[in-house]
Design brief:
Helix content is about 35%, strand content about 25%. The chain is an alpha/beta fold and about 900 residues long.
């Protein structure tokens, strides 16, 4: 990803239009001069405190002088259709951490968010340059600039002095600032998507004469789906297609459509997009496939130049079932049923499967978008649309890639508070990983954002059926009810497999249930109703369990019996006969059911999910319990760390990369300095270049028992144990000398020195690390350490920055977590010290994008704290970017 510090970017204004933000330089002299000369006298007075025009030339000269020869100055330009519509500048004030800013917006472009957008990008550039605050002087009646500053979300301090106001704006990014950006982003995004998802008119460009053409299929679906707006066909040779009047070109249409569907061969797509843009079309749906790099660039460029949002290319289409829209611009065989699920996919085949499944279940679709190659509109955009549309209650995603995963994670975390967000965690196999992000990275994103991640499309629909129809369980305790003993046992096993519990019921509840059930029933859990249970008895039993606090959910497994048939009882009907929704979720397992999952209709509006296999039912309940647990987490925040020397660490990194432009592994001294900048506790150590220095170091560092450890070092040495490059438990000078001679004899000139450490006290060995992903950013990992860490691979990961909750989850999600609390005689760990270590690693990872990898292994934990015994750190040249800065793909 790039930002305006390296290359121009595009971003949305509040009215949905697109501006291009870039560095201003000497080539902008005339444009800047025109910007000011065209201003009204009042706007000139607010900008320069005078209505004179001489300031315009001075401002143009100042921008023209920008460049490498003028450090401490930055100017950003906002352009629309090659016109300069906004300018933002800062100039550093000695000693260099504060900068004075100025803003100008072109006449006629006020109140569209130009100034706010420029300030966001200017602040990002300033932070990268070490600036911590902006200052500005304005007239006290400059209400527009006052609103800009106060609505930024940053800490702002005004100082009033007669007719003027001096402003100080702190540039620290905190939750308040990010929330303000979220709000602005959502507002602009929703406005820009309306022509795409709520068009008043649609034109199909490339509606072919052949019945099998994609364009013709889409045109037919739009018409047969009873689209509420006007529909046009564009074809250069015919006057009518499928009963729709056709026009030779977009410019020949009787009105400018909001949305144009392009279904042309790849070479014709760029020109069609250009024609649509010139005509004033506001959104494109491109179903064409096979675009090469040049064609793709031309398509994307046209969309940016002409303020058009783009879905596709190479996609199935989109749909909106809102009664006021009723748009089906897909080539699917069946129209999507109206409903409450928002669906976004990249694969057309997956989209068809989801549309059919949701229709069959009766959940239906609020809006659907097949994103295809995702040149523009993404899953993040759709989440913000569903958050605001007032109809969507369930979000289903199938994304093969993430353009800005950190922004997506933040949006999904917010939306997940309002509605379930579900996805398929694709790419777990070796073949799947070729196109999907790494599994640990995806899982970290999904977990932190509260996304329900299924392993298959069928499992996704299983979970959707339950989350759509039932309340969330408050825990994992399940009551199993069955009319056969064997069915109950199988269901209980399935619950256990999915991490749910089937607890024994209390004596009073058992007695109460037995009074409701036929003779011979047992009610210990599983509850065996026997085959003699009647419809009324089963209903009473289920309702009592669902109302009782002993369990969090009820799973009812039923098989058809001759007894029920003879008495005319419909046991399945008993599950849907309650006068209203029960306080706890109820799911059914019906092995005789043909469908994998179905929703049983009740006499009121609530429904009961029914599965043909207990494993599917239990898995869906486990997903619901996980969502409930995530929703009840207390508010969490990123820890404040006062004793961090960020500037010193950045200077160290810069110096290393100056000497090693391609990157490389740090030596022990540099590692110790870097970890010291972040207060990471290390076992004492010393560097020795020869045998005598090793002996002297051992004498200084030897503990009470006099024992030390010697570790070989050379550039690129990664796995010391595998190389037999470590000597443990050295008691005296003779052993130290012998160990050193052994290393010299085996490794020769490769050996650049050795590290001497005291032998560590007993404790449990852990692994903690950082890894920078090119797309996802920094990832912090934690798990079992020592020599077995690679073999067991017992690690979990979270995206940085870590909140308090993220850190707790990291520590407690490992299979070996019981070792922290004294399992099998292991020393009890200082968990708070481990949490602090992970917070510090998170901060280091966020501060230093050049930190490609840091492996702390082992980290020794004991009752008196933690200590890092061995570390390897690799730095690589990378540019930092703010993932939350507003910009389009």
């Amino acid at each position: 990803m790039t930002d305006v510090r390296q290359a121009p970017v595009h971003a949305l204004l509040t009215d949905g239009r697109t501006v291009r933000i870039r560095r201003a330089d000497y080539r902008d002299r005339d444009a800047v001069r025109r910007l000011y000369e065209e201003m009204s006298p009042e706007n000139l007075r607010q900008r320069f405190f005078t209505v004179g025009r001489a300031s315009a030339a001075q401002a143009a000269d100042r921008v023209a002088g920008a460049g490498p020869a003028r450090p401490g100055y930055c100017a950003l330009a906002a352009e629309h259709a090659d016109r300069l519509v906004g300018l933002a500048e800062y100039e550093v004030v000695p000693p260099g951490t504060t900068a004075e800013i100025s803003l100008a917006v072109a006449e006629g472009w006020h109140h569209h968010g130009v100034a706010t957008l420029l300030v966001e990008h200017l602040a990002d550039a300033a932070r990268a340059a070490g600036v911590t605050a902006f200052t500005a002087d304005t007239l006290s009646d400059n209400h527009e600039l006052r609103t800009v500053f106060l609505d930024l979300g940053l800490h702002v301090l005004p100082h009033y002095d007669g007719p003027e106001v001096s402003w100080t704006v702190r540039l620290t990014e905190d939750e308040g600032y990010l929330s303000a950006i979220d709000t602005r982003s959502r507002t602009a995004d929703v406005v820009s998507l309306r022509p795409l998802l709520q068009p008043h008119s649609v034109a199909v460009v490339g509606a072919g004469r052949k019945p099998g053409s994609l364009g013709r299929a889409i045109l037919r679906n739009i018409c047969r789906g009873s689209f509420r707006g006007r529909v046009f066909a564009v074809h250069p040779e015919v006057s009518s297609i499928s009963g729709v009047h056709a026009y030779p070109s977009v410019t020949a249409l009787p009105e400018v459509p909001d949305l144009a569907v392009i279904a042309l061969p790849a070479p014709a797509v760029p020109q069609a997009a250009e024609d649509c843009g010139k005509a004033g079309v506001r959104a494109l749906l491109v179903v064409s496939s096979g675009l090469d790099a040049h064609q793709a660039g031309a398509l994307a460029g046209a969309c940016r130049r002409y303020d058009m949002r783009l879905a596709g290319p190479d996609c199935l289409g989109l749909a909106n079932t809102d009664e006021s829209v009723r748009l089906d611009a897909t080539f699917a065989a069946h129209h999507p049923s109206p409903g409450t699920a928002g669906v976004a996919v990249q694969s057309g085949g997956v989209g068809i499967a989801l549309l059919d499944g949701l229709s069959r279940l009766g959940i239906g679709v609020s809006s659907f978008a097949s994103l295809g190659d995702k040149y523009d509109v993404s899953g993040n955009d759709l989440l913000q649309w569903w958050e605001s549309d007032g109809r969507t209650e369930l979000a289903l995603l199938h994304l093969e890639s993430f353009g800005n995963p950190r922004a997506f994670s933040r949006t999904a975390r917010r939306v997940s508070r309002r509605m379930p967000v579900l996805t398929v965690d694709a790419g777990r196999s070796e073949t799947g990983r070729r196109t999907a992000p790494p599994a640990a990275t995806r899982q970290a994103l999904f977990t932190q954002a509260g996304i329900t991640a299924a392993h298959s499309m069928a499992e996704l629909l299983d979970a959707a059926a339950l989350l759509h129809s039932q309340p969330l369980p408050s825990g994992t305790k399940v009551a199993v009810v069955s009319n056969t003993a064997g069915g109950g046992v199988l269901a209980a096993d399935a619950c256990a497999d999915m991490g749910l519990s089937v607890p024994a019921l209390g004596t009073n509840l058992i007695d109460e249930l037995l009074t409701l059930l036929p003779a011979g029933a047992t009610a210990t859990n599983p509850v065996d109703t026997t085959a003699a249970v009647s419809e009324k008895q089963l209903r009473a039993c289920v309702e009592r369990l669902a109302a009782h606090g002993a369990v969090d959910a009820v799973l009812v497994t039923l098989v058809p019996t001759a007894v029920a048939a003879a008495t005319g009882d419909d046991l399945v009907r008993s599950l849907t006969a309650a006068p209203g929704p029960l306080p706890r979720p109820v799911v059914a397992v019906l092995p005789a059911q043909a469908a994998r999952v179905d929703l049983l209709a009740a006499r009121n509006e609530h429904k009961v999910p029914a599965y043909c296999d207990a494993q599917d039912a239990a898995r869906a309940l486990a997903h619901a319990a996980a969502r409930s647990r995530w929703l009840t987490q207390p508010p969490s925040s990123v820890a404040e760390l006062a004793d961090v020397e960020t500037h010193r660490a950045r200077d160290l990194v810069a110096a290393f990369l100056d000497d090693n432009p391609e990157g490389g592994w740090l030596d022990p001294q540099a590692i110790a300095t870097l970890l010291g900048c972040y207060g990471v506790p290390q076992l004492p150590w010393a560097w020795a270049r020869d045998e005598d220095e090793a002996v002297a170091a051992a004498q200084r560092l030897a503990g009470r028992d006099g024992r030390v450890v010697m570790k070989a070092h050379w550039q690129g040495l990664l796995h010391k144990s595998e190389q037999h490059a470590v000597h443990l438990d050295l008691h005296d000078a003779a052993q130290v000398r012998a160990a050193h001679r052994d290393l010299v004899a085996r490794f020769g000139d490769r050996l650049t020195g050795v590290v001497i450490q005291p032998l560590a006290e007993r404790g449990t060995e852990w692994f903690a690390g950082v890894e920078q992903d090119e797309v996802f950013g920094p990832l912090v990992t934690f798990g079992l350490g020592g020599t077995a860490t690679e073999l067991l691979a017992d690690r979990t990961a979270r995206l940085a920055p870590l909140t308090d909750h993220d850190v707790r989850q990291l520590i407690t999600s490992s299979r070996t977590t019981p070792l922290l609390f004294g399992y099998a005689g292991s020393p009890t760990a200082d968990v708070e010290a481990l949490e602090q270590l992970l917070h510090r690693l998170s901060r280091m990872a966020c501060d230093l994008p050049q930190l490609a990898r840091a492996d702390l292994n082992p980290v020794l934990s004991g009752p008196r704290g933690v200590s890092v015994l061995d570390v390897r750190v690799r730095l690589e040249p990378r540019h930092a970017h703010d993932p939350y800065l507003r910009r389009l793909r």
